[in-house]
Amino acid sequence: TKIGASWGESRLDGNSADAVLDELTDEMWTVGVYHPLTKHLNLVAEYSVVKSEYDQKAAASLDNEAKTIALGAILFF
User: Fold this and answer.
1) Mean pLDDT across the stretch 54-69?
2) Are the C-beta atoms of 29 and 9 separated by less than 8 Å?
3) CA dihedral in degrees (77, 7, 72, 74; nearest 10)?
4) CB burial string 51-60: b at 16+ within 10 A, e below
5) What is the pLDDT of residue 74?
6) How is residue 26 annotated by DSSP?
7) Among candidate residues 26, 27, 34, 25, the one with its CA nearest the CA of residue 7
8) Statement: residue 9 has pLDDT above 80
9) CA-based nearest residue to 12, from 55, 64, 61
10) Rounded CA gap, 53 and 27, in Å?
C-alpha cells in the first residue's frame, strides 16, 4: 500500500485594461492511498481540497472551497 500527497497553486493577475479582475488564486492539495489487489489492478482512495480566491477591483472578494472524495480503481495493461 502506498500513500501519496500533492499540492499546487496557480495565480492569474489582472492588468490595467481588466475592469473586473485584480487577482485569481487557485490552490489544491490531494492525499491518496493506493492499494494493489493484483499485479494489474490497484484500488484508489483520494481526498482533495480546492480553494479559489477571486479579488475584484470594484466589489467584494469571492472565496470558494470544494472538498472531494474519490474512490476507484486503476487498471494497468
Assistant:
1) 81
2) no
3) 10
4) eeebbeeeee
5) 95
6) E
7) 27
8) yes
9) 55
10) 9
Residue that is written with C-alpha cell 492511498 in the block = 33
Judged on CB neighbours under 10 Å (0-12, 13-18, 19+), 27 is middle
Cα–Cα separations (whole angstroms), residue 66 to 7, 10, 26, 27: 15, 16, 11, 11
Residue matched to cell numbers 477591483? 57
Written as one string, the DSSP assignment of 46-76 is EEEEEEEEEEESSS--EEEEEEEEEEEEEE-
Q: Mean per-residue pLDDT for 3-24?
A: 81
Query: What pTM, to 2 d.p., does this model score?
Result: 0.77
| pLDDT tens track for 25-38 | 899 999 999 999 99
For position 63, what pLDDT does the model report?
Answer: 86
Contact 49/28 with Cβ under 8 angstroms? Answer: yes
What residues contact residue 41 under an 8 Å CB cut-off, 6+ apart?
A: 73, 74, 75, 76
